[in-house]
Specification:
The protein is mainly α. It is built from 23 helices and 6 strands. About 45% of the residues are buried.
């Protein structure tokens, strides 16, 4: 009682609300109690998050049973301690519905409490919590150890065949990815695709069933119908509004995707034969140069509209000057610095894993950015790291800029309260780095980086080639970005609504619904039969066993064009970014105005709704729109002469992936 009285007295002068124009809190007692608890949460949760993240980092950079156990134990301990803090929050402010308006306290306090009390679906039973952590670690380990055997017979040289036999089971990075990107042996591509999906997906499937059930237990305990409903709640709109937003964005861009699909299908049919890539049918997943057919950039040698037009070769330029993994990260850092971002803390290079270790360790190579909180309470910078098996390629060059987008976002909102140290929504976090890549990939910037002849002037044909390269990545990704969570939301809902008809076999339909969406939305089909209920091809995508929501990536592909257009408009208004011209050619490097606007939006973190953050940067826009995406890609769409060999589009909505085509 004495401590509470002292805390009340100390905070007596703080009952004015911090937002400009907001009246004082109408319930001083509740406001003061909430502020006192939030101050405590700030102190304690930072330490909890750090030890848990450190244990996860050690596991993913050295996948061993001992590190797996340690990561599980740290995850369970953290979950319990954070659950105890949330219980204390309810004791301090009352057991209030996290969706309630709480009109008697300040808006800032109310928002933090909503984020705290509505921010977890951790099961309340300790046994369930411990098992969920173990399942997640085991699935991550399966993915990290995934590999494919028996590929030596497809090698194009005796030396490569011997290397493959020596390695035995080839890992995803770099071996399987390189084969998919460079091989034109259709049988080898199919063996790689099938081997990976069989090896990883089948092993993940029984664990994923447990993961769904345990996640839904926690979701129901915290007031959600299922775990998918919890994921969607992060966007602070109703399920119906969220679905309408996603569908509207997709429908606006679907015609552009369908045109690209038809063009690529026609070109691949000429390479692999119409019996492998038939007209009027979905494209086989294994011939698109990517394990999940989400990025078609590796089909470039077949799909380039103007093969003779001069072009950059970033990979060759990087190799010729002897670039290193560390060097690629410093090149990226320099770009951000030129936009007036601060230098990365030295600990970034000291603590990160920037290349695949050569000491025999198994690691999770999937690139990721990490915020491990401050090492000490008074540290200036948080402990930020990147985990990436960087290669000296154009793809890695751009991926580094993407990952550092996360890192600089962490640094910009580092001084926000812990509950606001996050993106405005998770799509924002993914969009930051990709927005920067739009500038990095321009001819002007590549010349500045000495990765392109400074006298290079792209012809009209080269410009169309450049835009097609963008489309093979950005446009091709859209339906995949849309469908991954739609399938998972179905899995969560099936378990939550199981009336006994499925019994314990509701996951038998998992692969069926996965390929239903792949065909109907993406126009992609497996190259071999996948109807056996043992298959779980969704589980062969990292984000599924890692429990990483995927709608963020679809939204980020929309946001990044909005952000890029806004930054270019700001820069050009200040006489920067090279004046007028196609938006696709705009680089905001060296623009203080654009950098300042970008940093101001990023510094907000999650302190306001994402629509407010969008207004801050996107010149008054209050919602997700495909307009700027369409504007940029429309510069490609307006030059359709290279599409005249195949003007059909797949009717991916008819359930069979068929289309009415002409001139094929």
């Amino acid at each position: 009682a004495a401590a509470a009285a002292a805390a009340h007295a100390a905070l007596a002068q703080q009952v004015e609300c911090p937002d400009v124009g907001e009246p004082p809190a109408r319930n001083d007692t509740l406001e003061l109690a909430a502020r006192a608890f939030l101050a405590r949460y700030e102190r304690e949760a930072s330490g909890v998050n750090r030890y848990s993240a450190l244990a996860s980092w050690r596991y993913e950079t050295n996948v061993t049973k001992a590190n797996e156990r340690a990561a599980n134990e740290a995850s369970v301990r953290a979950a319990k301690e954070l659950a105890a803090l949330r219980a204390d929050a309810e004791a301090a402010v009352g057991s209030l519905d996290p969706a309630a308006p709480w009109p008697t306290v300040c808006r800032n306090t109310r928002r933090q409490l909503k984020l705290l009390l509505g921010g977890s679906i951790q099961p309340k039973n300790d046994t369930d919590t411990e098992r969920l952590a173990a399942v997640l670690s085991e699935m991550t380990g399966i993915y990290a150890a995934g590999c494919v055997e028996g590929l030596d017979k497809y090698a194009d040289s005796a030396e490569e065949a011997e290397r493959r036999r020596t390695v035995g089971c080839l890992p995803l990075e770099p071996d399987l990815e390189e084969i998919l990107a460079t091989s034109r042996n259709e049988q080898e591509l199919l063996a790689v695709w099938k081997g990976w999906h069989d090896n990883v997906g089948e092993k993940v499937k029984p664990l994923y069933k447990e993961y769904i059930e345990l996640s839904n237990v926690g979701a129901r305990e915290h007031g959600y119908n299922d775990a998918g409903a919890f994921w969607r709640s992060w966007y602070e709109v109703t399920d119906e509004q969220f679905d309408d937003m996603m569908v509207a964005a997709w429908k606006q861009l679907q015609p552009l995707y369908e045109q690209l699909h038809a063009y690529v299908r026609h070109r691949l049919g000429a390479v692999y034969g119409r019996e492998v890539v038939p007209p009027r049918m979905p494209i086989p997943a294994h011939v698109l140069g990517n394990m999940w057919a989400q990025d078609w950039s590796n089909t470039w040698q077949f799909t380039k509209p103007y093969p003779d037009a001069a072009a950059s070769d970033v990979t060759k330029a990087l190799e010729e000057r002897g670039e290193t993994a560390d060097g690629l990260h410093r090149l990226s850092e320099k770009f951000y610095e030129d936009m007036t971002f601060p230098a990365l803390p030295p600990s970034y290079y000291e603590n990160s894993m920037l290349k695949k270790p050569d000491d025999g360790r198994t690691v999770v190579c999937h690139a990721s950015a990490w915020d491990l909180e401050r090492a000490t309470p008074n540290a200036t910078w948080p402990d930020v790291r990147c985990k990436m098996c960087t290669t000296i390629t154009e793809s890695s060059f751009y991926t580094v800029h993407h990952e550092q987008g996360h890192i600089f976002y962490y640094l910009m909102y580092k001084d926000q309260p812990i509950l606001y140290r996050a993106g405005a929504n998770d799509g924002f976090h993914e969009a930051i780095g990709d927005t920067v890549v739009k500038s990095v990939a321009t001819a002007g910037n590549l010349a500045k980086e000495k990765l392109l002849d400074p006298n290079y002037e792209p012809s009209a044909e080269a410009q169309i080639n450049y835009l097609m390269q963008q489309a093979l990545s950005a446009v091709a990704f859209l339906p995949f970005g849309l469908l991954v969570d739609r399938a998972r939301w179905d899995y969560f809902a099936w378990e939550a609504n199981d009336d006994g008809n499925f019994n314990d076999n509701y996951m038998a339909r998992a692969n069926e619904v996965w390929w239903k969406y792949r065909v109907q939305i993406q126009g992609i089909a497996p190259g071999v039969d996948r109807s056996d209920a043992k298959f779980f091809d969704a589980g062969a995508k990292f984000h599924v066993p890692a429990s990483t929501p995927y709608a963020r990536y679809f939204l980020s592909h929309i946001y990044q064009f909005d952000f890029h257009a806004s930054l270019c408009t700001i820069a050009r208004a200040y006489g920067e970014a090279g004046g007028e011209g196609p938006i696709a050619n705009c680089s905001v490097r060296d623009s203080e105005a654009a950098g300042g606007a970008f940093k101001a939006m990023m510094a907000m973190g999650a302190s306001k709704k994402w629509t407010d953050a969008l207004v801050r940067l996107s010149l008054g826009a209050h919602n997700c729109s495909s307009e700027q995406f369409e504007r940029c890609m429309g510069e490609c769409d307006n030059n359709k002469q290279y599409l005249t060999t195949c003007t059909c589009t797949p009717d991916v909505g008819d359930g069979g992936g068929r289309a009415t085509c002409t001139n094929v």
